Amino acid sequence: MAAFIGQFYEDKPIPRLILVSIVPDERELIAEAFWLKAGHKVEIARPQRGEKRELVDHALTNAREALGRKMAEELGAVEAAGGGVRNLRARGQP
User: Fold this and answer.
1) How many Cα atoms occupy the beta-carbon half-sphere of 23 within 13 Å?
2) Looking at the whole model, is its pTM more than 0.85?
3) CA-wise closest residue to 44 among 17, 14, 75, 66
4) Are 45 and 20 in contact (CB under 8 A)?
5) Are the beta carbons of 20 and 46 closer than 8 angstroms?
6) 62 — phi, psi (to 5°)?
7) pLDDT attached to residue 68
8) Which of 24, 50, 52, 75 is buried most, with the most CB atoms less than 10 Å from its CB?
9) pLDDT tens across 57-80, in order?
10) Can you tell me the distance from the alpha carbon of 65 to that of 84, in angstroms, rounded to the nearest whole number?
11) d(CA 24, CA 8)
């Protein structure tokens, strides 16, 4: 999570509040580095309830669905490539 947060905000404006589903062990170090870069206090928090928790839950659902679609697309491409190889072998080609 720490690496993702650092990479994500490398070329983006850093907000004052970053909501996460998993609090990185390096939360205080990241917040301090962001404070130095952005010039304002940055809080990294895992909301426990309420609207902010719902936002994080929704983001997790979207991420899982996007990953599932990506994996399905890649599997389809692999199967399509494998099908081509099987067809060549069936016709006696190596």
Assistant:
1) 11
2) no
3) 17
4) yes
5) yes
6) -60, -40
7) 93
8) 24
9) 999 999 999 999 999 888 888 777
10) 29
11) 14
Please give the average per-residue pLDDT across 13-23, as a whole number. 97
Q: What does the alpha-carbon distance between residue 11 and residue 47 come to, in Å, rounded to a whole number?
A: 25
Chain centre to alpha carbon of residue 78: 23
Helices (H), 9-49: 27-38
Kind of pairing between the strands at 17-19 and 43-45: parallel
Beta-carbon count within 10 A of 34 CB: 22
pLDDT at residue 50 in the model: 97
Report the distance separating Cα 24 and Cα 2, nearest Å: 5
CA distances in angstroms from 14 to 19, 51, 78, 92, listed in the order given = 12, 21, 39, 59
